[in-house]
Amino acid sequence: MAEPNKIDAKYVNPESPPFPAFRGYHTFSFANDVMGRRLPTILGKAIEDTIITLNQLSSEDEILDLLACIERMDILMDDLKGNKKLTPIPDDGAGDIAIWNKEIAKYFQGKDFMSAPWIFAEAYKYRRLHSCFSVSRYFQDYDVFFRQKCDTFARSGHAVFELATRFAEPFDIPNDDAKKLIFYELFQVCLWGNSTDLSLLIDMSEEDIKNLQSTGGDQLAATQKNILGNDIDKVWNQLKNSKNADFLIQSGLANQVKFHGKRFSWFVSDVTKKDWEWLINSACYGRLFKGSPEELNALRALGQRWKRYEQEGKLIYEQHPFWISGYTFFHLLEVSPDLFLDLHQSKLVFFKGDLNHRKLTYDCRAPPTTPFSEAIVSGDLQWLLLRKSSSFIRPSAPESPLLSSEPGNLIAKHSYKYSSTINGQKALGIKPQEKGALIVARKTKSPINEWNKGFAKTQVTGGKRRAYKSTANVVSTTRPDLLKPSVARVSAIYASQNPKKDAPVKKVRGNKA
Predict the structure, then answer these.
(1) Does the residue 210 lie in any domain?
(2) Domain tally for the chain?
(3) What percent of the chain has pLDDT over 90?
(4) Which residues form the domain of 109?
(5) Partners of 317 in the beta sheet?
(6) SS3 assignment, position 287
(7) How far apart are CA 332 and CA 415, in angstroms?
(8) Which is nearest to 171 in space by CA: 182, 162, 160?
(9) First to last CA, the chain
(10) Which segments within 213-328 are labelled E, that is strand?
(11) I want to staple 79 with a disulfide (CB 3.0 to 4.6 A). Which of 84, 484, 490, 493 is the partner?
């Protein structure tokens, strides 16, 4: 939970955060992978989604209108891949345009996608993406990620039914101890459920989704040891002592819960008003999942209770424009005092997920030893951060690389690029053998949860030139970005297997004998 810190927001601005900002050109950081690979991939999928919609249209006016949207997306793709300078956002009549363009003019004149702070450049890309549609005639509110969100939810039936059958019936909670146990369980569900971050997991199978979202009691107990920072007891004490989500309302811990969503599609999986309504109505009436009558009835009961809470004003959805701005939470009071005051009236504010964590900490390179209470926004609000952490998205410095004992890590360096686990189907490792080396690469369609069974192995033997050629042939088809370090790794293995002989002792001849 929030505590007072040593950072004064008066001396901080978007181009000059409390610590050095992560930027796309930092090859040692996750920012480089996001800006250079992930964002173009996400935008490419957004274009594909729009083309699917285009091919379903019959009205010529709508077709031409959507074609213009696609052309604007193509321009954005060229700007992103070409690392163009950040330009003002076209005025689409939305109230946030002036704020965006003022921020660009004041802090980011001449900056490009890679040189601007990562958190701003990434947000700018999503605002530009929305403007591709917001200036259109028929598709102003088109969500390029809606189809993907629906599809991922539809493939999440295992976790959905686990939760629905567990929590469909109203709780009969006799005392505070029982409430506390359920409260702890639900918090873990919220924490590990955030594994399905569509902006980070750009390629996911149904089996991957099931494994990530497992919410059974045994699974939660097994993963509790992985929680590094846990203030859940403070949260419980804060809530249980106030007389004033589903469990909070049922248990009497809260009489109203506000959900702060986004006005338009944002960072792929962030919730919009359309998503909110679709989720509740799908639970009440939809037929997304194949399940037993008991499971389907449980889901329907859960959805109907949520709908009733919404009608009674106990669950409220709001979408303030600050959440889709380029500012971090350091500037909340300065930019949106109305939102700050609204949050200040809450007993507790929950920030959930990776983006909220980044905006709380200004997404900058604080030394790894920096206490969290010093890296965050001011403690004027009573808030809690709920986030599944990734060791690749953490405060770090290039002068202090961490080594890794992870199997299959090509150069034994703790890095997103070289990690075999996080790269899934593109994992690559090279191991020494008695003679030569062994290249270990992931099979194309191997399930990620059966790690040891999913490798293709290639023996590299013979002379050095032959070994280098064999390595290049394998690596260029799986991980061309790792070609040079792979050849260097094989070279080092060969050098270790053929140590240089000591120079022979010179024979002393002539008068020196």
Answers:
(1) yes
(2) 3
(3) 38
(4) 9-134
(5) 259
(6) coil
(7) 33
(8) 182
(9) 82
(10) 257-260, 315-318
(11) 84
